[in-house]
Amino acid sequence: MYLKTTSNNHSEFYTIMDESSISKSKKTNRRMQIQKSDSDLFFRFNQSVRLTSDIGLALIVLTTTPEDEASYQEFILTNSIDLVPGVYFNTLAITEECSIFMEPLGKDSPKTVPTAKKIAIRKYEPKLMIEKLHTLFYQIKMAPFESLSIPGDYYELIIVDQGELIHHIDDAEYIAKKNDCFIYQPGQVRKQSITKDGVTSYLSIIFDAKGLTPTATNQIIHLGSQNTALIERIIELSNITTNGRYTDDEVLLNLKLILLKIVQGEANHTEKPTTSMRENYESELFQAMVDFLDAHVEDQNQVSDLVEHFSLSRSTIQSLFNKYANTTPKNYINTIRLNRSKQMIQETQMTLSQIADYLGYGSIQYFSRAFSKEFGLSPSSYAKSIV
Question: Domain HTH araC/xylS-type, which positions (predicted)?
Fold first, then answer.
């Protein structure tokens, strides 16, 4: 990025003019239209030259030794400066419309000398571009597990949150552990397996990109805490049901930052304690199950309903309810049904038999026993108590 002339309070090439000098200069000096964005010449005056910005942005290239290209310094001209006598310079147009005021403070004419290399406006073009984000998803798997996918014309970034995930490339195996990532190239077979006992969870991001170097793929790369924080934010944004105006932009920006650090070899950082991706995912998943049961308790009131709706194993659901509710999913569902039955006794004209049938109890006797065990009195006694 270019510096501005006003960024340097002290320069070997120029002095910065105050506001009164700038105003006076614009009345007496000459406006110059600048159209070139490159040049192979420098100008040199024996006496000082005053340069003042006018319209658009102009780049000024300065040196005291034009034969040494390493000595060239570049600044965006802002406000007004007086060049030191004998300094070599030239001005180039950054914007399409560009003009400056130039006032030689002496009577001499400029000397021109060739540059050691052509000076030109630098074009800032991104080297790495994410063209499209196809999908991202979080998975929890248990050993033994094996997945083989047909080659796809896209990149896939896989980040392990917990456990171990083995990537198979030709005859080689790459074992990814917590906060390790692996990038598959387009057209590459995607094969993973889990052999170690326990739970393995990982995030997969599928996308199209240009400029992603081959050295960033087919290897295990450990992500430090700064990068995992970016991943956490991607997951958070992906779970927002109401798509904000710039949600997709932020997801793509965070993914690009991660990929840039990977290709530049800066992915590893000192680890700091962070909330794991799995922790966030599990918390949100448990809340989704609770909301689902609350909304559909009359017809979706079995553990098997959760298994089918959320595509999870019974053991995973059991683990989540033990962790977040300190009870089994079956007991949790029964508690919701019984609390709903109290509400229906209070607010509807339905008979106890109708309520029992509506909430999926096999008989009024079963419903009565469950109600009495939970609240310490029978449903009929509760109904009489609120009359």
Answer: 287-385
What residue ranges of the chain have pLDDT lower than 70? 8-10, 19-29, 239-244, 266-278, 387
Residue 299 parent element (H or E): none
The residues that bridge with 62 in the sheet, in sequence order, are 73, 89
Which residues on neighbouring strands pair with residue 208, listed in sequence order?
132
- Identity (one letter) of the amino acid at 379? P
Question: What is the Cα–Cα distance from 302 to 117, expressed in whole angstroms?
Answer: 77
Instruction: Identify the CA nearest to 260 among candidates 220, 232, 223, 218.
Output: 223
Structure tokens at 341: 């039955």
Say if residues 16 and 51 touch (Cβ distance below 8 Å).
no
Q: Which residues are CB-contacts of 210 (< 8 A; sequence separation ≥ 6)? A: 128, 129, 131
Give 122's DSSP letter: P
Per-residue pLDDT of 216-254, as tens digits, reads 898 999 887 777 778 878 877 776 656 667 888 888 999
Residue among 268, 265, 262, 318 nearest 289 (CA): 318
CA–CA separation, 41 and 43 (whole Å): 7
* 208: Cβ contacts below 8 Å, ≥ 6 apart: 130, 131, 132, 134, 154, 155
Q: What is the distance between the alpha carbons of residues 180 and 163, in angstroms, rounded to a whole number?
A: 10
Model pTM above 0.85:
no
Predicted local distance difference test score (pLDDT) of residue 171: 86
Helix (H) or strand (E) run with residue 104 in it? strand 99-104
Residue in 254, 181, 177, 164 with CA at minimum distance from that of residue 218: 181
Strand order in the sheet with 172-176: 145-149, 190-194, 165-169, 172-176
